[in-house]
Records
---
Amino acid sequence: MLLGDSPIFSMMKERMHWLADRQRVIAENVANADTPNYIAKDLAEPDFSAMLRRGSSSASVLSAVQTNPLHLRGNGSGGSSSAALTRRPDFETSPTGNSVVLEEQMIKAAGNQMDYQTVTGLYKKSLGMLRIALGKG
């Protein structure tokens, strides 16, 4: 079995690709901060519950079962399953029609960087656990 075949590694890889694409979109927004009639863009969050359902056909993913009627039950409905580009005009649109707010874009960029660092740290820890399991840690 390859590491890319594991659901957790494939989800981390997809998340890292999404974060890289989102960083590109944020950079485009900042670059067009003075462009007339430019509407700020962002990427829709990927639906990781759908990725788990896709991978649930393999034996390596377990699904939760409600064993008691008093337990909470997952509804399985997350966000949208696409990472589509969304354009939304902001309430702070300039007189030229530009909706880029630099402060908002910088906050998004910082959050994006923290998420990327979190995923890379999780990736390193997962590889470390595999090495320990194989006796090479």
---
Amino acid sequence: MKSMLKEAAILFAITLVSGCLLGLVYQVTKEPIAQAQESAKEEAYKEVFPDAAAFARVGWTTGTVPPSMESAEYEYKTTIDEVMAAQGADGSVLGYVITVTNHEGYGGDIQFSVGIQNDGTINGISILSISETAGLGMKADPVLKEQFPGRNVEKFSYTKTGAASDDQIDAISGATITTNAVVDGINAALNHFQAIQQDPSIAVVVENPEEGGSVNE
């Protein structure tokens, strides 16, 4: 009995120390990880909207989530993570950078930012995180992202037989699930952008990230 109590006490002590060490590591690494993630996003903003002088966060004047965000979740299995206004040197809005996460990738979530000019033209996309099959789905970055810049359409689809119009994207051979996830994510971003353009009153610039502050959605 004493032996069992001793072993239980030792196991408890080890578990307690391990837990404390893990907690300490988390606290030490939390801020650097968050900073690295913010830096990655800022680089993505600049990649998809190089003409912008600054980026300001967009919130919602309605006090509720816009319907376009709900339709993104339902129709495209995509979360609208963040919307940034791409601003010119004079503070004017040149367009938007919309960061989305599609939940239908072959290897899990795919997160990327989409730069869209005010007239609906896509500047480009920048993939922030992806965990697809090596050699196939991972081609989303070099293969898919190069097909979107300069296109101005309401909605994209993909094809396996060669794109015949601006609204068609050539699928990655052997990775149609990844292709569909990226196309759906971009369609969700376009749908949200179009909602803002149709009713600008739903969106308002609420923060310049360089100045700090919070977002009220």
---
Amino acid sequence: MRVVLTTVLSAKVRVNERLIASIGRGFLLLVGFTDGDDKETVEKMADKILSLRVFPDEHQLINLSLDDVKGSILSVSQFTLYADTKKGRRPSFVNALRPGEAEPLYDYFNELLEMKYGNIQTGIFGADMKVESINDGPFTLLLDSKELFF
């Protein structure tokens, strides 16, 4: 599982020119899955994300969590996080988990975030989404589940 986490001042998702999700300050999460990902992987990733201290405090030190700043979460499925660009000029997506297996994990991930934190909006799995964000910092992290399991 990979998640690109960006701190944002605001973020929105549109599908067919219709606004389906919108948040203020918080996390924009781009979420992708690969073979071997399971509920345990999702649980560890959700816990990691919610425990991160990535917002500046009054001294501009990176000390505050999402909860500390009362932020929101916008979670967007993103199978292209597993693109393989080693050969040729066209990415291969063979490492991305098939939609039938990835969608339940994505739903479970969002359910966990809702249960443990609340204040989450989501994109639509598999839809052609237009994502807008005003990045804060910018401050962007790439979280890979391989690093959560030592």
---
Amino acid sequence: MNKLIEIKGEEEVKIMVDSFYDKVNEDELLSPIFNGFSKVNWDKHLPIMYNFWGTVLFGKGTYTGSPFPKHLALPVEDKHFDRWVKLFKETIDENFTGEMADSVKLRAQSIAITFSSKIKMLKEK
């Protein structure tokens, strides 16, 4: 078992993002969305995610994009967001401890709920 560490900065954000997307790439529900439909260029995408989570968690300001529009075109439903949250929380629980670990799980859950709700609302129009 890994020794749990606290999320304190860039190094831990990188571990979090890399570990999470390793799970996504092995997942039978999410991998086809990322690797099939979206054809994600991981060498380009991962540094964007480091910046996103660094900004979300530590206010670094290195991420200035707008993530929602990129997700609108994806063929995703609640089950995809549920799996995303499940894998994200597993990643945190397997690697991290402390207040920031708890906070990042809540933030991920909130992002998933927001994106899922907005996608449903816009597709119903």
